[in-house]
Specification:
mainly alpha, about 0% strand
Length: about 70
């Protein structure tokens, strides 16, 4: 398959600017600077969710239902 440069298909590029011309990431960092306690709380919630999903995934694979179960004769 040949490579098509992004300049050949400008409508296929991701739009990272809003109507005012500022980038989404700039808005994100500005929001974090304006509301640091909320950003910390959101980060903690995401971290807790990842930890819970990891623990849940490990418990499922170790209780005999996962791919790592061993057959006892």
């Amino acid at each position: 398959m040949s490579h098509v440069p992004n300049s050949a298909i400008p409508h296929a590029q991701a739009d990272t600017t809003d109507e005012q011309g500022t980038g989404i990431f700039t808005q994100f960092t500005d929001t974090i600077r304006d509301h640091p306690k909320t950003a910390i709380a959101a980060g903690a919630a995401v971290a807790a969710g990842v930890a819970a999903a990891t623990v849940y995934g490990r418990s499922r694979s170790s209780n005999g239902r996962g791919a790592a179960r061993s057959k006892k004769a």
